[in-house]
């Protein structure tokens, strides 16, 4: 049984590729989807589709609308959501995606370091599972196949 996993979280490094590699090494039949990881494409998609906007606020709003549309479609098609919270970047998009997944009743795994237990306590309590590492998240998914 192949499952689709939406990987919510920052787009500034290759953590998604690392997750996919580990899942392959574990022989997990998973397909991964997620947000647009090309930062410039994500920031400029509104103007790329709708044309030049009258200012940065409008440019950001246009891009946000289209990125949110993309996220909603991919998340609704997903079987599981993994939301990775790290310490390096602000985590607004991750929190929004995790909240949306929980609202959609998607099985949700939150990955967060110990230092973020307090700020994420309410979100963690709404998720199905909260772990501290991506490896633990993959082990939770692996358990489905036992």
Structural features, described:
It is a single chain. The chain has a single domain (about 5-40, about 75-145), classed as Rossmann fold (3-Layer(aba) Sandwich), CATH 3.40.50. The protein has six helices and five strands. The chain has a five-stranded parallel β-sheet, with helices on both faces. Helix 5 (about 120-125) links the parallel strand 4 and strand 5. With about 150 residues, it is an alpha/beta fold. It holds the Pfam family Nuc_deoxyri_tr3. It comes from Mesobacillus boroniphilus JCM 21738. This is YtoQ family protein.
Order of helices and strands: EHEHHEHEHEH
The CATH architecture would be 3-Layer(aba) Sandwich
In terms of per-residue confidence, which ranges show pLDDT below 50 for 5 or more consecutive residues?
none
Number of helices: 6
Q: Which class in CATH terms? A: Alpha Beta
The rounded distance between the terminal residues' Cα atoms is: 12 Å
Gross morphology is globular
**pLDDT averaged over residues:** 95
Give a quick account of the main beta sheet: strands, pairing sense, barrel closure.
Answer: 5 strands, parallel
Strand order of the largest sheet: 2-1-3-4-5
Secondary structure tally: strands: 5
| Rg, alpha carbons | 16 Å
CATH domain fold name: Rossmann fold
Share in helix: 40-55%
The structural class is alpha/beta
Number of domains: 1
Sheet-strand content, in percent, reads: 15-25%
InterPro entries: YtoQ_family_protein (IPR019884)
Protein name: YtoQ family protein
Pfam family, one: Nuc_deoxyri_tr3
């Amino acid at each position: 049984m192949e499952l689709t996993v939406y990987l919510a979280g920052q787009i500034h490094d290759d953590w998604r590729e690392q997750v996919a590699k580990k899942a392959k090494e574990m022989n997990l039949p998973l397909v991964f989807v997620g947000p647009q990881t090309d930062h410039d494409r994500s920031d400029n998609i509104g103007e790329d589709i709708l044309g030049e906007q009258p200012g940065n606020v409008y440019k950001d709003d246009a891009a946000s609308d289209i990125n949110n549309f993309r996220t909603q479609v991919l998340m609704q098609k997903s079987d599981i959501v993994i939301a990775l919270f790290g310490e390096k970047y602000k985590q607004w998009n991750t929190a929004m995606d995790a909240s949306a997944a929980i609202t959609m009743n998607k099985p949700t795994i939150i990955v967060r370091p110990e230092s973020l237990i307090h700020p994420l306590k309410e979100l963690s309590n709404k998720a199905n599972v909260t772990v501290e590492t991506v490896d633990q998240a993959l082990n939770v998914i692996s358990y489905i196949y036992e």
